[in-house]
Amino acid sequence: MGQTYRCSTYLDKGGTGKTTCTAHLGVALQQACDEEVLLIDLAGKQSDLAKTFGLYEEVQADIESEDDFPNVATTMEENWTNVSDLLDDPIDELVYETDEGVDLIPAHPSLDALDADLGNVDDAQERYHRLREFLDDYVDPLDYTVVLLDLPGVANNVSYNGLWATESVVAPVQMGPLEFEQARGLEKDLGGIRDSYGVDVALEMLLPNLYDRRTNLDAEVHEQFLEEFGDVVGPEKIVASQAIRKATNEGRTIFTLDEDELSKTAREAREAFVTNAEELLTRLNQ
Fold it and tell me: How far apart are CA 267 and CA 259, in angstroms?
C-alpha cells in the first residue's frame, strides 16, 4: 500500500466549473500521470459527476430500484460502522467504474438530509470528522494514489466534512473581480478553520478556469491573482472551450476526443489539465 493523497475542489460559489475540473483533473492524473484515482461526489443530488462520465442513468436506476444502499451519505451517518460490518466489501458496494479509468462514488439524494442530520450533532469533532474516518479506515487501505472530492458550492456540514477529510483545496476560479474577492474570502475562511478547530487545511491551488484570452479583463485579473496569491495559482490557465461542454454533455471528458475532434482551445485545455494535475500531485506530495 502506497501513499494516498486527498484533495477537495471547493469554492463557496456555484458555477465555477468545480465538477468539470474535478473530472478532468482526475482523468489527467489517471491517464497522463498513471495514478489510480477515486472521485467522490458530495456536490448534491444532481449527481453531476455521474453525468460527466455517462453513468447517470445507471446510478438513477439503482436509486429507483432501491439498490442504492449503502451510498455516499451512509458513510457519514452515525451507524456506518454497523452497516459496513454487514457487508462483505463496503467499498465495492459504493464504487462505480468509469470508462476513463477513474473510479467514482456518486452523489445521492440523501446528502440533503444528511447535512441537516449532521447539524444536530453537538460535538464538532464528531460532526466534521465522519468522512475522514471513512477514508482512513476504508479507502486508504486500497490502491488509490489520489482521492478527489467534489464539494458543494456552499459552506455546509457536508463541505466541512470534505475539508476536514482532505485538508487540501483546489478552487477553480474565473477571471473576474467578484471571483477574486471570493478567493480572498476562501483563504480567510480556511484560516478561520485552522484557528478555530486546529485542522491544517490549506489552499493548494487556485485553478484559473474558463479563461477567455479575447478579453483584457481576464488577463488583468489573472495578473491580480498572481500578485495576490503567487505560486498558489495553477501553472496553466484552462481556456474556455465549447468542446469541453459538448463532451461533458455527451457523458465523457475531452480526454476521450480523437485528435481530429480537438479544436485548438480543446487541445490547449487538455494540455493545461495535465500540467495542473502534475503540479497538484507534486504539491500534495510535499
Answer: 8
- Integer Cα distance of 34 and 40 in angstroms: 19
Residue 141 neighbours by CB distance under 10 Å: 11
d(CA 286, CA 283): 5
| 52-72 pLDDT tens trace | 999 999 999 998 887 778 999
Helices (H), 95-156: 111-119, 124-134
Can you tell me the distance from the alpha carbon of 171 to that of 186, in angstroms, rounded to the nearest whole number? 9
Q: Which domains does the chain have, with CATH numbers?
A: 5-285 (3.40.50.300)
Q: Is the per-residue pLDDT at 229 higher than 50? A: yes
Cell readout for 250 is 455527451
Amino acid in the structure at residue 270 = R
- Find all residues with CB under 8 Å of 36, minimum gap 6, and list them: 30, 143, 144, 145, 146
